[in-house]
Amino acid sequence: MAEVRIRVNGATATLDIEPQVSLLDALREHLGLTGAKKGCAQGACGACTVLADGERIVSCLALAVQYEGREITTVEGLADGERLHPLQKAFIAHDGLQCGYCTPGQLCSAIGMLAEHRAGAPSAVTEQPPGLPEAPSGPPPVLSEAEIRERMSGNLCRCGAYNGIVAAIQEVAATDAEMTR
Amino acid sequence: MTTVTEAPAPPGGATGVRPVGAPVDRVDGREKTTGAARYSAEYPYPDLAHAALVPATIARGRVTRIDTDEAAAVTGVLAVLTHLNAPKLKPARRPTPFDLSGAVSGTPVDYLGTDEVHWDGQPVAVVVAESLEAARHAARLVRVGYEESPATVDFAAELDHAEPDKGNPVQPGRTVKGDAPAALAAAAVSVDLRFRTPPYNHNALEPHSTTAVWDGDRLTVHEGTQHIGWLRKHLANRFGVPADGVRVVSTYVGGAFGGKFRVWAGTLLAALSARAVGRPVRLMLTREEVYRTVGGRTPSVQRVALGARPDGTLTAIVHTAITRTGRSGGDVEPVTGVTRHQYACDNILAEQKRARLDVLPNTTMRAPGESIGTFALESAVDELAVRLGLDPIEVRMRNDPEVGPVDGKKFSHRRVREAYAAGAERFGWDRRDPRPGSMRDGRWLVGMGVATAYHPALMMGAQVTVRLSAGGSVLVRCGFHEFGNGASTAQTQIAAQALGVPVEAVTVEYGSSDQPVGPMGGGSIQTASVAADLLAACEKVRREVLDLAGRSPDSPLRGCAPGDVEARDGGLFRVGRPGAGETYAVILGRAGRGEVEAAVGTGSRLAGVAGQARSFGRALRGLRGFGRAATGAQFCEVRVDSDTGEVRVTRWTGVFDIGTVVNPKLAGSQLRGGIVMGLGMALGEETLVDPRTGRIMNPSLAEYHIPVHADVPRIDVHVLDDPDPTMPLGVVGAGEVGITGVAAAVANAVRHATGRRLTELPITLDQLL
Amino acid sequence: MRPFTYVRAGDVAEAVREAARPGAKFLGGGTNLVDLMREDIERPSTLVDITRLPLAEVTEPPGGGLRIGALVRNSHLAAHPLVRARYPVLSQALLSGASAQLRNMATVGGNLLQRTRCLYFYDGAAACNKREPGSGCDAIGGFNRYHAVLGTSESCIATHPSDMAVALAALDAVVEVTGEGGTRRISLGDFHRLPEGTPHLETTLRPGELVTAVELPELPVAARSRYRKVRDRASYAFALVSVAAALEVRDGAVGAVRLALGGVAAKPWRAHEAERVLLGGPATEEAFRQAADAELAAATGRPDNTFKIELARRTVVATLRQLAAEAGTA
């Protein structure tokens, strides 16, 4: 057993855990934060996506001990009290969810993605050879539907709510762009 | 006509708008976007223990040796249960008209009650431990010795041994009208194609999870299920305890798609483990265990042969299919069912065979039958159109039936023509150059294809209570199932409309055995089934309120018959006379009543049995009378890389007739979801069963390719919103029709783009090189 | 997952020292190792966490080229302005791999050491010479659509799953490693091994050696480079075949070329033979086809994966054709 301190949603959490406990299980089983979901525990579905110091990661393949001292944000940390994060509102308005199981991961991933985009990070679509439909021409990346889809492809949704998710992200990204202009 | 749009609606719906038909936001949206929604593995209990399965690694035989010492020695392990020491379960009951619950048994195999192994992956032991990590680690340390028996696991090798399916009243194994083989031989133009579809897995993103808690003979189970009532009875039967002592909580279900309809090993073994260790136990299957212990869709081999006159009139339809079941359970998937309904033809032969294999029993998966049956039928019709030199829509319209082609029943309504007309316009079908390979965009070959969507509409019974409070709030209780289908939102809207109150005033309690029994959440039956009884209960409430009002000489409603009043603005008002009425608050207040409550289909135990029979009766009656179905027209554009053969779907339009649309936003999501799953079927999904061993080799979301964001274009969904006159509120289910026809539309578009007719799913680039 | 001891290394020397324990393994991003531990395929007794070592910088050495610390995250490397400008093939290869989340976790060193996705390697119930030497290979007679067509043996037909490494192979990268015996440099072409009779030996790393950096030489042709990944899904899928190519055309002739293939072998496959055919010859479709044929002459397919030979040929030609076209318009 090791004592591990991690900042979770702004508060320090102290865990007494074995090193084989994943960050996801630490959140779900030890801290009672069940928002991050377990869909595969193989890094293949994105349902467990959380933010580590603002960067999106899959918490199922992260050992909790390795994240000692890091700042983790889960879906429970997105809303400001009763006030939903704009992306949460947009997901509801565009029906970017059905069963809801992938939703926390999609939300955290989208927030991380928007930050990456603001920082100018390219995607495979940005860098793709011309000729593909919808491929924009080089940086700075325009957050087109194709860009959002590529950047969000690590988050599977079996209900098929993809269109609504993309629409919700696009709406928030547009507001984002307005604000930073 | 209503177009499904993405426009945000006010939360809870606008006041002044009729609730049914409004694009109301999902009522559980807040819980699901904040992480507050608790799924089955997320209920905390003191002393909770964790279970892990040990799956067999042979297809057939016996366990001869099972060494649990090393596993038991792991710190924190509470028990290692095997057939040698596990408490016994009672055998699964066969379904009867008075107790259908046995139908949810995935297999009669008695897990841990036998040393027999019937499929690769069957659990042969369970480890229960203080921590998840200890349980999982110890499960790897259980050493199992087997005596293997010869096993039949290769579907392709068993096709010649397939036996005719006897069928049942709902799904005949063989349909013969006229003489299809003779008509086919004599036809001026014909096609004769063989199709292959692989096994599929549901892959609901939430792995099957159970939290089981015993208190004496009382059992609480948190479990995502599509049939709370039957799961409850089944558990009671298997554990030999009274059903009223079994509580099933299934408020949030992380996707189902048919995969959570039946009861599989995880559920039973979680409850068994909890009983054995005397503590609450949680078992969340690993993704691999879902593949190995929860049935999926059967593979199929199909033949569709069509004969036609030069003008496109069909003269012969032959559709035969072979599917597999497990030797230890599973049903024949009714692949050829759609062929009895889709096209007018004097000569039809539809025939099903089954091969029994030593594999995990198959089960229901979204649109069982139609999803893979339409791939073959609609691909063949497209190929026929090519041979005829006719437009594929024209061929379909020429053969669109006036009455059921086999049963001769009238359609309650059929809007396939309208769906194609609307779809062609929205999609821009007139821009299609019919010559194969003629449309190019740089290195991409562009193709357009269509296919018809079809799913029959059925109804079963529900038990519903409705309570109207003097304050104007409404509480609806019915143990139906919400797994993303939007059921809770739709029933909220229906109740609001029936009682004339705002959507915000309605609370619907659902998703557990604490409520009156709901219908199954599957077969696209739930919305209409609950609506029928919800409307009846609301009608009872209205009548009682009217009766209360009528007792007062001061009431403007005095002397009114039920038909003279309508529910609106939080009360009852005379039809056509605004202002002539009273609010519920006034009526109930004057009568000194805090609330009015009505129940439909509930009551004593006897009533429960009667309810079951009534439900069954409703389903059977529904099969007589009219031919009812949800239908649609699917339009697909693909691009095929001329160098590599990569296929990408770039545009989609689906126009559907699902009767009345209760909520266009949520119905649109359901239909899109079906289309997305269809895209997976068409282009990526396949469960790889090693023909040497019967073992599933890609039990992982990394190697079983469901569509990702980048695979899914913007999907234009349009609903005709034309009420079915024979269904409650005119509603026909929308959960399954979306997936039907999708794979065919993709294959037909690929045919157009490349000139190649591909008949094996998934369509991968190796077939196009 | 089996229990293990967790050690966090403070510097490279400590990491190397800790790694000398029997059964020790380095833990980087964990995206492959943790998965394999959960599957009981990797069973380290000690994990030496190296993620806090100061190896996360991309720097320009005085002699030119680029030095990439072994702990630079895949996403950071892909977005690095110098990589995007001078070695676009590397940026593209990285961005075509895995998902954004995994790229945020995965390190350059770990990416090189990824293990195969062979279904039989992943399944403890199957025979696999890589996982359990001498047990046999169930992939040869089983599902092998994703498997190798070049450099295979009767022991193993698995592929290396990395995209990044294919680009590095084309770019003449050098891997810097440090062990108890000191620091040494291995050319990327020599870093991974072909299976022969010992498929469990995947690299030429010595026990306990730590990858500390990857060096890219100054390579002007790399500014005109492309990575083309062919896969079943539009994103988030391993390559069936991939091509990393750099091409310089002078007066219609190939002035410089680098070519490597992914998804076809147990290592990123540098196409030396094709490069030899191309260099100095005409930059034409016909020449590209001849070069691809020359490289793939030795390829052998299995029932499920023979298509890869034709696919690789077409992808090589298409990628070179595109680079030539871009050179023409520049």
Q: How is this structure best described in words?
A:
Chain A has five helices and five strands; from the N terminus they run ββαβββαααα. Chain A has a five-stranded mixed sheet, sandwiched between helices. With 181 residues, chain A is an alpha+beta fold. In chain A, α2 (86-93) packs antiparallel against α5. Chain B is of the alpha+beta class. Chain B is 26% helix and 24% strand. In chain B, the strands form six sheets. Chain B has a seven-stranded mixed sheet with strand order 4-6-2-14-11-12-13, with helices on both faces. In chain B, strands 1-29-28-27-19-18 form a six-stranded mixed sheet, with helices on both faces. The relative contact order of chain B is 0.14. In chain C, a hairpin with a 6-residue loop joins β4 and β5. The longest helix of chain C has 23 residues, at 307-329. In chain C, the strands form three sheets. In chain C, strands 4-5-8-6-7 form a five-stranded antiparallel sheet. A four-stranded antiparallel sheet of chain C has the order 9-10-11-12, with helices on both faces. Chain C has a three-stranded parallel sheet with strand order 1-3-2, with helices on one face. The termini of chain C are far apart. Chain C is an alpha+beta fold and 330 residues long. Chain C is globular. Chain C contains 13 helices and twelve strands. Chain C has helices at 12-19, 33-38, 74-79, 81-86, 88-95, 100-105, 108-112, 119-122, 164-170, 188-191, 272-278, 285-296, 307-329; strands at residues 5-8, 24-27, 46-49, 58-59, 66-69, 174-179, 182-187, 210-216, 225-230, 241-250, 253-262, 269-270. The chains are: A alpha+beta (181), B alpha+beta (769), C alpha+beta (330). The interface between A and B is large, with 67 and 73 residues.
